[in-house]
Amino acid sequence: MALQGLVVGRGAVAVAGPFDLAVASGEALVVTGPNGAGKSTLLRTLAGLLPPISGGVRLEGLTAADGEAAARLADASHYVGHRHGMKAALGVGENLAFWAGYLGAGPLRTGEAAEGAGPLAPAEALAAVGLPGLSDIPFAYLSAGQQRRASLARLLVARRPVWILDEPTSALDLASQALFAGLVAGHLARGGIAIAATHHPLGLEAAQTLHITPPAGRDDGPGSNGPVAPAIDDAALAEAEGWL
Ligand SMILES: Nc1ncnc2c1ncn2[C@@H]1O[C@H](COP(=O)(O)OP(=O)(O)OP(=O)(O)O)[C@@H](O)[C@H]1O
Predict the structure, then answer these.
(1) Rounded distance, CA 130 to CA 125, Å?
(2) Where's the ABC transporter domain (predicted)?
């Protein structure tokens, strides 16, 4: 897949780009940059949650959950953002079962799970992220690190070729970070792609790095003397982000 002149932003305001780069099957792209640089904005755009300001993404050979060639990256990708996307009152296994159905995992096919290529059942996915036996516990009862790991188990209950990950290892201890790095490495070894924004090294030796530098003078916080960004029209933003 390739980003082609991709400019990302909020509402009509460009935040970062243009980006021109290719990510091959089996490759990781690590997106770095200071707070506010536009990492999340880029990832949300790739996941189809924000429209690009200009440019786009060229897809090559990516398959959607229905087995057809993906028309949009969102159809061939997992997105795990800052929020966990899990219902607090539901059991962890129930949450994962919801995601499997929603993402179109299809039935677990015998043999595939053993090879690591097919979707895992919720209990197996939890074991793979180091949380065996927690299927029936309400998500709200888990610790912060356990919640993050349970949220990442989504990646395993439905197989998608591209993983879009925003700070995936936040709240993870060192052992869990290493466990997750192993899961990403396995995904890449099977020809997957991982695109991750992070402030921490993910242990991905062969990763391509995209460092986003905010334009000089952008007003990124209290005390800044830079020019103030144009006001964003709330209605336009709501429409663009699909709140309406
Ligand atoms: N909903 C929004 N409306 C308007 N501006 C926004 C919105 N969300 C983010 N921004 C602005 O877009 C810019 C990029 O934010 P973004 O969240 O993409 O940064 P980031 O690189 O992911 O930062 P961090 O490392 O803190 O997570 C920031 O200046 C931010 O204030």
Answers:
(1) 9
(2) 1-240
Q: Ligand 1, atom 1: nearest CA belongs to which residue?
A: 10
Instruction: Verify whether ligand 1 is closer than 6 Å to residue 8 (CB atom).
Output: no
Question: Which CATH number does the domain housing residue 167 bear?
Answer: 3.40.50.300
Taking only the tens place, the pLDDT of each residue in 63-107 is 887 778 888 899 899 999 989 999 999 999 999 999 998 887 544
- CB of 41 closer than 6 A to ligand 1? yes
Among 30, 32, 39, 198, name the best residue to mutate to test ligand 1's pocket (greatest count of ligand atoms within 8 A of Cβ).
39
Please write the tens of the pLDDT for every residue from 196-205. Answer: 998 777 777 6
Task: Give the 3-state secondary structure of 188-238.
Answer: HHCCCEEEEECCCCCCCCCCEEEECCCCCCCCCCCCCCCCCCCCCCHHHHH
Look at residue 115 and tell me whether its pLDDT is greater than 90.
no
- Six token digits for residue 56: 């786009």
- Identify the CA nearest to 198 among candidates 172, 225, 233: 172
The residue type found at 155 is: L
**Ligand 1 contact, 40 CB (< 6 A):** yes
* Half-sphere exposure at residue 113, Cβ-oriented, CA atoms within 13 angstroms: 18
Q: Give percent of the chain above pLDDT 90.
A: 60
Give me the pLDDT at residue 140, please: 96
Say what the ipTM of the complex is: 0.94
Q: Which domain holds residue 86?
A: 2-241
